[in-house]
Amino acid sequence: MGAEISARSFTGEDRRMFRSKVRDCMKALERMLREDVFVDVHSSPEPHLGMEIEFNLVRDDMSPAMSNLEVLQAIDDHAVFQTELGQFNVEMNVEPRRLTGDEPFELEESLRSSLRRADERMHLHDAQLVMIGMLPTLELDDLERGRITANPRYEALNEQIFAARGEDIELDLDGVPLPGRDDVETLRADMNSVVPEAACTSLQLHLRIAPEDFATHWNAAQCLAGAQVALAANSPFLAGKALWHESRIPLFAQATDTRPLELRNQGVRPRVWFGERWIDSVLDLFEENSRYFTALLPEVSDVDPMAELDAGRVPELRELQMHNGTIYRWNRPVYDISDGHPHLRVENRVLPAGPTVLDTMANAAFYYGTLRALTDADEPLWRDLSFDAAERNLVLGAKFGLDAKLYWPRTGWVGADELVLRCLLPLAHQGLEAYGLSAAVRDRYLGIVEGRALTRQTGAAWQRRQVARREAAGENRRTALLGMMKDYVQNMASGTPVHEWE
User: Fold this and answer.
1) Where are the alpha helices (DSSP H) in 128-277?
2) What is the DSSP string of 383-436?
3) 415 — alpha (psi -120 to 50), left (phi > 0) or beta?
4) Phi, psi of 97 (to 5 degrees)
5) For the chain, which residues score pLDDT lower than 70?
6) What residues contact 164, with CB distance under 8 A and at least 6 apart?
7) Contact call for residues 330 and 420 (beta carbons, < 8 A)
8) What CA–CA distance (Å, rounded) separates 165 from 160?
9) Which residues have a Cβ under 8 Å from the Cβ of 397 and sit 6 or more positions away?
C-alpha cells in the first residue's frame, strides 16, 4: 500500500501544493533519465525476481479471521509480513533473488520456510494463512468499514475515495454458470467502505528494468495479461455467489472507483486502469498518472527533488511515488531506490494468490520467461495486436479462465489453453533459457504450467467443480463452500500443484 502518512484530512491548498510537487518530481525524473542517473542498472545485468503475496486469514471453521494485527505480532517478522487493508489480510514480501541458474529453487525453499515459521507462531490465534485470490467464505458483512485495519493510510484512503465519489460504492457483477448449470448468478450491493478491495488478494511480480528497455517490457506485459489471468484464475466466489473465474479483476476495479455514474458516463478514466495505448517511454505512464488523476493522499514533503539532484543526491520523489501508489494499473511503473541507487520496475498485478507455493513459482516462471522472449523478438508483438484487443483478452481471461477464447496475432481467436500450449509455453522456455535458468528449473515450473493447461484445471475451475458436485449431492451453497474450502486448505498444505488435485 506504499508509504505511511501522518494526516487524516487534506485541504484544497494541500492538493495544489501536491500537484505542483508531482510536477517537480516529473521534471527531476526526466532529468535523471536524460543524464543517465540509472547507469548502475547496466553494471548488474542479471535481473532479479521479486514478489509480494497477499494472504487471507481463516479460522478452523473456514470463516475469515479478523485478527491480522494479532497474527503479525505472533509471527514477529516485520521485514517479511506486513498489514494489508482488511483485518483478514496480511502481505508477504519475498526478498528478490537473481533470475539465473538454480536461484528460483532457493526462492521456493525460502518461501516455504517463511510460511512454515509463520504457521508455527500463529496457530494459537485460531488463524491460518490461505493462498487464494478471493476467500469464498467472505460475506458482505465482513466487508464493512469496521473491518479496515487500524492504520492512518488505510483510513485516509477510504475517506478520500468516498469524498471523491460522494456516494456508496456499487458492486455489480454477473457471474458465469457453474458446470452443469444454466443459471447466471449476480452480485448487487452498495458498500460503505473500500474493504471489498481487500477481498482481492494477489501475487505481484516485480522486474527491475533499464530505462531504455522499460517500454518494450511494459508493452509485452500488457500483451500477456489475458493469458496470464486465464491460466492462473483462482477467484470464482464472493458472498455466496459464483461470479467470474477471476472475479478479482472486476471487483477491484469497482471497489476503488472514485467516479460516480455521471463521471463514468463522461468517460473519465478509472483508477484501476489497463491503460489506453502502447508506450514509448516510462515517462508516458507517469505523465498520464499526473495528468488524469486527482491526488487521494496529497501529503507534501519539504524536499526539493531538483535541489537533491544539484547536490549529487538521489531524490526520493516521494510525491510521485505516493500518487503512483493510488493508481492501480494492472502493470504499474515503479520508481524506487535500493542501496542508494535509483531504479525502475514493472510491477505485474494481474495474478491472484495461490493455490500453492509450486503454482506461485510456476506462474512467476511463465510470466518472466514469456516476457523475456517477447521483448527479445525481432518484431514487437504489439505491432500486430491492438491495445483494445489486449484489454479485451484480459476481460475474457478473467471471466472464463481457460475456457476463454483469446485473440493472438497471426493465430486469430484461439482457446486460452491452446494458446498457452502451442504458442506461449515454447516462448517461456526460450525466455528462461535466455535468462540463464537451468533446465531443471525450466522443466519443474513450466511443467506445472503445461499440466494445468492440459487438464484445464486452474484453482477457479477446481473450486467451481467442487461446489457444483457438492450441491448436486444435496448441500446448500454455504455448506458446499465451507466443505470445499476445507479441502482447498488441505490440498494447499500438501504442496501438490492444483492441476493434480482430485
Assistant:
1) 152-165, 214-232, 248-255, 261-265
2) GSS-HHHHHHHHHHHHHHGGG-EEEETTTEEEEHHHHIIIIIHHHHHHHHHHHT
3) beta
4) -125, 155
5) 1-8, 39-46
6) 258, 259, 294, 296
7) no
8) 9
9) 225, 226, 227, 228, 229, 230, 231, 233, 246, 404, 406, 416
Q: Tell the burial category of 42 from Cβ atoms under 10 Å away from its Cβ (0-12, 13-18, 19+).
A: exposed
Measuring CA to CA, which residue among 88, 84, 148, 55 is closest to residue 352?
55
Provide the total of helices (H) and of strands (E) in the chain, helices listed first: 17, 15
With CA atoms as reference, report the closest residue to 131 among 491, 500, 502, 499.
491
Question: Alpha-carbon distance 227 to 408, whole Å?
Answer: 10
The three cell numbers locating residue 489: 486448505
Structure confidence at residue 479 (pLDDT): 97
* Cell numbers for 331: 502493470
pLDDT at residue 156, rounded to an integer: 87
d(CA 147, CA 316): 32
- Please say whether the dihedral angle defined by the alpha carbons of residues 438, 216, 417 and 131, taken in this order, is positive or negative: positive
Cα dihedral: 267, 168, 396, 373 (round 10): 80
Q: What is the pLDDT of residue 453?
A: 98
* Residue 146 to residue 454: CA distance in whole angstroms: 44
Q: Please report the pLDDT score of residue 124 as a whole number.
A: 78
CB count, 10 Å around CB of 159? 17
Q: What are the tens digits of pLDDT across the range 278-292?
A: 999 999 999 999 999
The confidence score (pLDDT) of residue 338 equals 86
**pLDDT by residue (tens digit) across 133-191?**
999 999 999 999 999 998 888 988 898 888 888 899 999 999 999 999 999 999 999 99
- How many residues are given for the chain? 502
Contact 401, 389 (CB under 8 A): no
pLDDT of residue 48: 77
The count of C-alpha atoms lying within 13 angstroms of the C-alpha of 437, restricted to the half-sphere facing its C-beta, is 29
- Identify the three-state secondary structure at position 331: strand
What span, in angstroms and rounded, lies between the C-alpha atoms of 491 and 480?
16
In angstroms, the CA 142 to CA 326 distance is 23
